[in-house]
Amino acid sequence: MADLIKKAAGDIAASRKIVALTGAGISVESGIPPFRGKGGVWEKFDPMEYAHIDAFMRDPEKVWRALIGEMKSTLDTARPNDAHLGLARLESLGYLQTVITQNVDGLHQMAGNSDVIEFHGSFAVMECLECRREIDTADVTLEEMPPKCMCGGILRPACIFFGELIPPEHLTRSQAISARCDLMLVVGTSAVVQPAAFMPVIAKQSGATVIEINPESTPLTHTTSDYLLKGRAGDVMNALLQEIEPPA
Ligand code: NAD
Ligand code: ZN
Questions:
Q1: Theoretical Cys-Cys bridge with 208: which of 168, 185, 203, 240, CB 3.0 to 4.6 Å?
Q2: What is the CATH number of domain 33-77+123-159?
Q3: Which residue among 52, 120, 170, 222 is the active-site one?
């Protein structure tokens, strides 16, 4: 592993147009559970019953009580961890350009990355189903379920449910920058949700080096990635930065 960290640090230091693709795993060390796998939200909920747009439209109160309310309580107080901060550092050192994230938690922006594509939208804002007004999630209270806009309309998060389309401008830009990057870091994503999981394939086909950071291997591991740095995102990022800028 120490050898692979050295190799990755060298590959990063030789790059100027790095793109990071991140998933729920990068926020696990901030106390936000992922969807799949051990401790994942889907151990408690059936996704189709709670996270599909049809389920929400059929019974918004049920979905707010079970899923959205709990997400709001978790995300309201979540802070960036060493992995988010490490990616921000790679930007300030001039290596990393853009973060494409499947997460809706806003932690990359909070850590200081300036160009973040929120592939699945953002949980930081709620939208009224009636008048389309946007309200900061931090200003929404859970006293009334489901929470409502001042016009009486029901609020929904500004991220996509299953059964909804990726905003086309996010998809087009993500594909374009994946094709232009010289290195892609794939951090904490199970790489099974499309079309996000296709971005590393585009990067690889365009000649970029693809490095995964994950405690588990994924469908990309022996097919698309050049190598896997096996471990928790925060620990691996700290080891990489130690190597890239050793303490004086
Ligand atoms: P996922 O839940 O499918 O998979 C999580 C991945 O993270 C797994 O591969 C797991 O091995 C890995 N992982 C677990 N702990 C880790 C750690 N400490 N460091 C690094 N990796 C770790 O995640 P996904 O592929 O991003 O799934 C997609 C959907 O889940 C996305 O659409 C996203 O919007 C949504 N989601 C977002 C959040 C969030 O905003 N934080 C949280 C849960 C789910
Ligand atoms: Zn309204």
A1: 203
A2: 3.30.1600.10
A3: 120
**Is the pLDDT confidence value at 47 over 90?**
no
Cβ of 193 closer than 6 Å to ligand 1, yes or no, is yes
Where does 93-232 have alpha helices with state H? 107-111, 168-180, 199-205
pLDDT tier at 86 (50, 70, 90 boundaries)?
very high
Taking the centre of ligand 2 as the mean of its atom positions, its distance from the CA of residue 80, in whole angstroms, is 32
For the Cβ of 214 lying below 6 angstroms from any atom of ligand 1, the answer is yes
120 annotated active-site: yes
Chain region(s) in the chain for CATH 3.40.50.1220: 1-32+79-120+166-248
Only one residue has tokens 């050898």, namely 3
Spatial neighbors of 103 by CB under 8 A, at least 6 apart, are 22, 23, 24, 26, 27, 118, 120
Q: What digits encode the pLDDT tens for the residues 175-230? A: 999 999 999 999 999 998 889 999 999 999 999 999 999 999 999 998 999 999 99
Assess whether the C-beta atom of 24 lies below 6 angstroms from ligand 1. yes
Q: Which atom of ligand 1 is nearest to the CA of 213?
A: 20
Cα atoms in the Cβ-side hemisphere of radius 13 Å centred on 188 = 29
Question: Is 28 a pocket residue for ligand 1 (Cβ < 6 Å)?
Answer: yes
Q: Is the pTM of this model over 0.85?
A: yes
